[in-house]
Design a protein that fits this description.
10-stranded mixed β-sheet; 12 strands; NAD; D-malate dehydrogenase [decarboxylating]
């Protein structure tokens, strides 16, 4: 089956890594057709919108979305670019599971003493602290008030936890649920209660509850003790950047925004962002984009091309290609992976 992929290269280094990922997918034997959309901060400056009014309906006709990176804060505030493109896509397509794998590729040196870890972080992706509920009044006066309201629904919390339990069943049978229920006695206590309720449905999964600060320490001190980690939107966002750090840097951090029901297209993206400081220098590491592409193909059922991409990038890093930020050009890393393919 040929799958239709919507490409959104976006801003900064998102453009070259998307081009590189497309070359790698085509060389892997993936059965895909693609269409590229120029939605970005440049698009916003020209049209006053990050994407057209019918952007969501346009994307609905695709099997998956591949995003390079979006954002250029010197030109467009991050709050505008994020709420104008990335968050609307996640919410409209009910991509409630953000999945990020954290492990060291062969030849990559992380900052920790151990190499022995393989963590799958699952972040709730559509509500919680990033719900966007709130407002500001009396702006610019001494009486100014800003309110940001976190929204946790039973449906939202239960579905992300069930997804986490199912991933743990398919892996090593361990689930870590992350909250801050000692301080946030409403939303986070609620999350803990739902975790305990669902644990009875998954007796083959060992469940441990951690506070966010303790989990940050554990990911540094004992990452090998972790298997599947599930957290809210904000906590998952923080933990996955820490996960990227221990796996050698953002250049290796891949992600998937999944609708597990498969009623809507899911979106795949490297985590590194648009990195305006190195845009147009040709030194962006495309490894995270390649890994994200492999995750996309695997999600679509094209498991053989996905496996070939992962084998090729691991063979390249084992030879020292792309293992040090800025040392190898984007083209050099891409050429090495294509050679392995």
């Amino acid at each position: 089956m040929t799958h239709r992929i919507a490409l959104i290269p976006g801003d900064g280094i998102g453009i070259p890594v998307t081009e590189a990922a497309l070359r790698v997918m085509e060389a892997s034997g993936a059965d895909i057709t693609t269409k590229s959309f120029p939605w970005s901060c440049d698009h916003y400056l020209q049209h006053g919108r990050m994407m057209p009014e019918d952007g969501i309906e346009t994307l609905r006709g695709f099997d998956a979305i591949f995003l390079g990176a979006v954002g250029w804060p010197a030109r467009v505030p991050d709050a505008v670019s994020l709420h104008g493109l990335l968050l609307p896509i996640r919410k409209a397509f009910v991509q409630y599971a953000n999945i990020r794998p954290h492990r060291l590729l062969p030849g990559v040196e992380g900052p920790l003493k151990t190499r022995d870890f393989d963590i799958l972080c699952i972040r709730e992706n559509t509500e919680g602290e990033y719900s966007g509920a709130g407002g500001r009044v009396h702006q610019g006066t001494p009486d100014e008030v800003a309110v940001e309201t976190s929204i946790f629904t039973r449906a939202g919390v239960e579905r992300i936890l069930r997804f986490g339990f199912e991933q743990a069943q398919a892996r090593r049978g361990k689930l870590a649920s992350v909250t801050k229920s000692n301080a946030q006695r409403h939303s986070m206590v609620f999350w803990d209660e739902v975790t305990d309720e669902l644990a009875a449905d998954y007796p083959d999964v060992a469940v441990t509850r951690y506070h966010i600060d303790a989990m940050c320490a554990r990911m540094v001190m004992a990452p090998e003790s972790l298997d599947v980690v599930v957290a809210s939107n904000l906590f998952g966002d923080i933990l996955t950047d820490l996960g990227a750090a221990i796996q050698g840097g953002l250049g290796f951090a891949a992600s998937a925004n999944i609708d597990p029901t498969r009623r809507n297209p899911s979106m795949f993206e490297p985590v590194h962002g648009s990195a305006p400081d190195i845009a147009d220098q040709g030194i962006a590491n495309p490894m995270a984009a390649f890994w994200s592409a492999a995750m996309m193909l695997d999600h679509l059922g094209q498991t053989a091309p996905a496996a070939r991409i992962m084998a090729a990038l691991e063979a390249a890093t084992a030879r020292g290609i792309g293992t040090h930020p800025g040392r190898d050009t984007t083209d050099a890393v891409t050429t090495a992976v294509l050679a392995q393919l």
